[in-house]
Predict the 3D structure of the following.
Amino acid sequence: MGRTITIDPITRLEGHGKIDVFLNDQGNVDHAYFQVPELRGFEKFVEGRPAEDMPQITSRICGVCPTAHHMAATKALDDLYKVEPPEAAKKIREMIYSAFMVEDHALHFYFLGGPDFVVGPTAEKAKRNILGVLGVVGAEIGLKVIGLRKQLRDLISLAGGKVIHPVFGLPGGISKALSKEDQAKFVAGANAAVEFGQFSLELFDKVVLKNPKYVEWIISPAYTHQTYYMGLVDAQNKVNFYDGSLRVVDPAGKEFSKFKAQDYLQHVAEHVEPWSYVKFCFLKSVGWKGFAEGADSGIYAVAPLARLNASQGMATPKAQGAYEQFFKTLGGKPVHHTLANHWARLIELLYAAERMQELASDPQIIDPNVRMLPTATPKEGIGVVEAPRGTLFHHYETDERGVVTRANLIVATQNNAARIAMSVDKAAKGVIHNGHVDDGILNMVEMAFRAYDPCHGCASHALPGQMPLIVRVYDQHHEMVKEIRRN
Amino acid sequence: MKTLVLGLGNELLGDDGVGTLAARALKEQLNRHADVDVVESPLCGLALLDLLLGYDRALILDAIMTGMHPPGTIIELGPEDLDPVCAPSPHYAGLPEIFSIAEQLALKFPQDIRILAVEVEDPYTLGAGLSSCVTRALETLVRRVQTRLTCLAPSPSTGEGQSEVAKG
């Protein structure tokens, strides 16, 4: 429309995601923008610190997935020192990481994402939470989830030092080998996780997929975007959370590129909008074409749905069966429905559990040799993992003593930021007409939130007296006409 | 009666760490009490569930940003003061959700939960440390917890502790 919109980007957001909606002369949505509060001071904070501290420092950025940051940082250190960890170390790392993925995915599905389906997106607000879920599936299952999570978190603690700040990642390996006793505990935990994964998929099938109304909701155009998809895959192009190459497929599902983490800057670029301090990632070779879908726009997505789309299957048998059913049900690859992330998450949960089982039972995993000492002079290191919510990059530059001179993180949410913005825009356009703003916008946007589960890197917690979303609506003169927050 | 003093917060993120730091300051003194555990945690969301299980009483120390009080104000809350919130993401789930879950699942959760929250100024800047008003509030908070525990559990405490109470 040619209108310039200037928004003061310095506004304090109080730890909330902020959505600004701009209306045109007719009172319809011109554009809606989604902003997150910035994590301030990161670059300054890490400069001058030993790179070996980064696994501990970065694991404290997020109070929900510290293990993901710890692992990405550890791998960046491997690259920084050009050192290859012994096989046992890699396997232990991946096993712990798999336990973390199961635990996090379980948490998300049952307590947060699941309610949209198990209870139903049109159910009254008061029921669309874990309590509503428990109302449907029974308290026993709630206890099962909590019990499994505790079991897995205790295992991670066992091997990782402390679950809160896992201290076990070192350049070239890990700090502690796995004893036979601990191995047996991991096997038991993995078996419980596999059973739980299968149970969860059965539950999803029973409660969600057998309900045509829910399926209709999943495939509704309101949450459908045809973008590129990116995820880590192994040598057979199967999903892997810990290591491999990044594979990108186009909106038609064809392989577009495949590259190593070290080359990410040749493939991924960041676009800055004047109204936001979030940098929007896009595929460099396709280019930034605005908040648009399709093969001509460089916007891509990460996270469970993207990972299934970007791969050619799951590396373990039960998960592979679930993967096949997923695409069969939803009409083939790739699937563009954002809400399908919840289903994809459960398939990943099962894979992570099976993978944990494989690794825990591997005789090599109790090998005492878990560290290769670095000898190279450090300069630059890049590490990548698949965090629960998507691809996570850690990139460090250091001096010859290994002291950080520069650090850059691309977190999952940044990879998804452009697509999230499109979802918000679409949601706003769906509920705002002729100047009439419905409080239902909060629900529409929150549903997208739950599917992407954006991490804002803000305060690791706060007493949530207020809800973390504020929607502000501006008229054609950029005067605020309405502010909606959940109270 | 087992009491938990739980300090929440990420000390790397400016004022956000006030709860954690308060717990840390209290650990030394409270270690002498057999029935009191002091825990610091930067975890958020539903991970907090694990921490609270099994205690009869909990005193939670935390940062809060309501915008309704001058930074440095200490606000006391109970679970009844927290809105039953429908959090859209694990990143926002917190104490209200946990209380609801515990109730629904009949988990062994503390019967008596009090939250002492410090209204903060800047919980977003990495490495900034506490703002000056929050630093002062930290000292007050620590004394307040000591007083509270002396009232709760008349276990033998040192002379030091009691004179601090008198000052506080």
